Prior knowledge:
By secondary structure, this protein is of the alpha+beta class.
Amino acid sequence: MTVDLDAALKFAISIAKEAGQMMRDGQARRFSQDAKQEEKANSVDLVTECDQQVEKFLVAKIKAQYPDHKFIGEESYDGEQVTGDPTWIGDPIDGTTNFIHGFPMVATSIGLAVGGVPVLGVIYNPFLDLLYTGAEGRGAYMNESIKLPTAVRSLDSLSEALVAVEYGSSRRDPALSNKLDTFKRLTGDKRDGHKMVHSLRSVGSAALNICFVAAGQLDAYWEIGCWPWDVCAGMAILKEAGGASYAGKITEKSFSGEPNASIMAGRKYLFVRQLPAAKGETVRAAQAALAKQFYDIIE
Ligand code: 2AM
Ligand code: CA
Ligand code: CA
Ligand code: CA
């Protein structure tokens, strides 16, 4: 089944904008009613009525436009696997905790995978009116006019990097301690044997983190625990912006050949931005070298 990506992109942008309006309205309504949210797995894994409304809206629009395509989304997920069929993979609200608090790092994320590979992504932050898009062979853009990446500086070592991380919704030890240990190894002083990256950022939206890496505004994003709806759209955008996605269990082989692995490779991810090709080295090799420095710290 072939998909007209130009038409699909136009369609995805239009439903993302509509979803954005639902999110602005939903947030205003929540604040005026002092609405409460539901807890899923625990008291930091939250969902609102708006998450569910937006997902229902996306499903209905996609089913009407593409009756032969599949859909996987966070709020209706029931164990579906990503197959080779055209599959829309969406997160109605990425950054639900931010949405609840009114912190404006919130987005709707709409991706399309064909053959198990993300080929199209639309990520819209309605609170800052930021739209990130990408489709295979067509480049990646911010607000439909600014081509990504906007900034490509050299980056000789991970210690020069600005890196996104998140705390996730599982706060149990030893998983949390392991994560915090990694944060320490990344940020700690060189004299104590740590990497001393420029800093870590935790803005609370996986989709937006990947967009910032695609734009070159962040150097890398490391995550454990992502689901396909957190990364599908972002991976399509990042690939078109010349960035690299490393997914799943990392072995030496992960750093050879093409990155941008399958979205079901596992729940660990590392995203690296576009880099300038230096001294006869390819961009891919430079990105792999940076990823390797990362994995020497975290694996
Ligand atoms: P959500 O808002 O759609 O739930 C902040 O923690 C970011 O990580 C958000 O993008 C959030 O998505 C996502 N997230 C939620 N639970 C997670 C988990 N267990 N592991 C990794 N990311 C998670
Ligand atoms: Ca969630
Ligand atoms: Ca999410
Ligand atoms: Ca979500």
